[in-house]
Records
---
Amino acid sequence: MDRYQWLLFLHVAGAFLLLGGAVIAGVFNVTALRRERPSEIALLLGLTRWAVVAISAGLLLTISVGLWLVHNAGYGYGDAWIVVSLVLWFLSGFLGGRGGRMQRETRALAERLAKGN
């Protein structure tokens, strides 16, 4: 395998980590919404921290290897599809960070309520 194929493999692996972690976090969040006991909600939202590890690794791999891949393949950083993908990458990171803050606050509230019961 040459460098391009390795870079492409790592870039796609990062995308799978990113999407897989997002799906797992989504499943835990939806499951937490269907629970009534604060202790169960806190547990499920606490489990999303493991999904955040995969999401973070995926974000790091996709951007770093993706930019290296653009350079290695000889594409221009000003090409429309590259600019759009970078904008979407930053947007997903921003929105994920905001959602993560809300989930942390919800988990903290559920933990406080669970201790009070």
---
Amino acid sequence: MSPGGHLVTTAAVCTAAAVTTGSWPLVAGLAAGGFWIDVDHAVDYVAVERRRDLRPAAFLRYYLEGRVRRTVLVLHSYELFAILLALAWTTGSPWLLGGVGGGLMHLALDLAFNGEFTPRSIVRFYSFAYRARHGFDAARLLGSGPPREVAAGFWRAFLGGAQVESAVLDSPGDHASARRRG
């Protein structure tokens, strides 16, 4: 899902939670888990990928165009959510409950929308142990999906994300990889 899509869905869920529960710790947790979880992309961009162009547009294009070589993404993992869920359950912390809820929403949206770009299992990708076993190598983890088109301009790319290039040929109907539907 595009960053803008995560922002919009998180804002909607936070608004609904604020109106129905009035719990600001819950709302803050939902915001952290639903949108700010993506801070791990920025950490990977600088610390793992060693990218030095810190302009938001350069960072966004790097990800949306599928140029990533390593994918550590510590916050995008089932294992972390299992630990956080156990902590939230035992402590009853509304902040942690919101964080887990927002994060699980974020992962569910990623699973639903990001699989279009990879012929490999997007479900297994969100296991940290699976990524570690594959050396966090994006090509080994995700394969080389179809070419991506990214809208010109920061806000259009932020809100629209990437699209499969229209020149990609259809694959057979029973094939698991992404294909352009006409």
---
Amino acid sequence: MKLADYKKHTDPELIALCLNGDALAWETLILRYRRLLYSVPKKFGFEAHDASDIFQAVCVKLLEHLHEVKDDRKISLWLMKTTFRMCIQLKAQKNRDSGTEDAAEEPLDPSENLEELQIGIEKQQSIRDAVETLPARCRSLIEMLYFNIEPVSYDEISQRLGIPVASVGPNRARCLEKLRSVLRKKGINR
């Protein structure tokens, strides 16, 4: 079975395969949630190297505790909470190391309301999941326009996708409409 075939599996199916030692299932599960795992440290204001460290640490923790995940249908929630905790720990460690920690001050400052942050991250993951279901060209276009850390010019998009520069805008509009349709079918209205 190829990696592309694994993408069709649900989270519980992937977890069962992971627990049986299937490396491609593990890779698929990590790829499915990589953006979620990176988005949380970014919300905390961490730089790329810290986000990478947190990503790796969460992956190790998942590997160690996958058999303990109580509800395999909510792996995204487990990942988000674990990532969140690691961000709080790293923030506190950085404050201690820099000597800026105030004993009366909480180490967390990206949001006063953690529930709102959690809801926002879950919504972002739902959008990422929906983008994964789009045709390859639309998926690539949307990822270049909205998911890249560095902005990508229409000229570069034109070259990568092999379409005229003047077609990028209309293609973008069509792809966004396809995405809206997928989100509506999932009950997510923007």
---
Amino acid sequence: MTTATIREKLHDYINIADDKKVEAIYTMVEDEIAEKFDHWQDQEFVNEMNRRIRDYESGNVKCSTWEEIKQKTSPL
């Protein structure tokens, strides 16, 4: 399993986990979270950002403005 997949699974789990489990996970990594993390030093992050830029610039992905997103997601 790739690191990206693991991250996605953790994000999904944290969003639905009960409060005690979230607090337990946070306690395990609290010190690391407190340290400033420079995403631009993470090669996997840089590679992903470069891929997304290439996709955008080549027209392979359709992008929406913030106003379009708000309009699509607002209740009727």
